[in-house]
Amino acid sequence: MRSKKSQSLGLRKLNAKARQVNGSHYKQMPIQPSEFIYKNNLNWFEGNAVKYICRHRLKGGAVDIDKAIHYLELLKEEEYNGTGKANKARAKVS
Fold first, then answer.
1. CA 24 to chain centre
2. Are 8 and 23 a contacting pair, CB within 8 Å?
3. How far apart are CA 20 and CA 18, in angstroms?
4. 36 and 27 in contact (C-beta within 8 Å)?
5. In the list 18, 42, 52, 94, which could disulfide-bond 46, CB 3.0-4.6 Å?
6. What integer pLDDT is reported at residue 94 of this predicted model?
7. How much is the pLDDT for 58?
8. Burial of 65 (0-12, 13-18, 19+ CB in 10 A)
9. Is-contact 54 29, C-beta < 8 A?
10. Cα–Cα distances in Å, from 50 out to 7, 26, 71, 89?
11. Mind giving me the DSSP string for 41-64?
12. Which residues have a Cβ under 8 Å from the Cβ of 2 and sit 6 or more positions away?
């Protein structure tokens, strides 16, 4: 049962994956980037790169590719510190 607060705010009992705010470019994909990012435990930089790569043909074109590249550059700087070797302090534990 929905709470009075959610009813007063007009919140829907709709699966969040079934809707998209401001567009439909992600809903057209067989696997939405958010699901892929979550299930693969990607970090902020990795997730944003995936998101922009997935949507470039449907929304932002070359600008989305530039954004993906930027997030990958940020990832490289944070994870590898220009050394080519992973920063052990930030390495993921599986």
1. 15
2. no
3. 7
4. no
5. 42
6. 45
7. 92
8. middle
9. yes
10. 35, 12, 9, 24
11. T--HHHHHHHHHHHHTTTTTTHHH
12. 11, 13
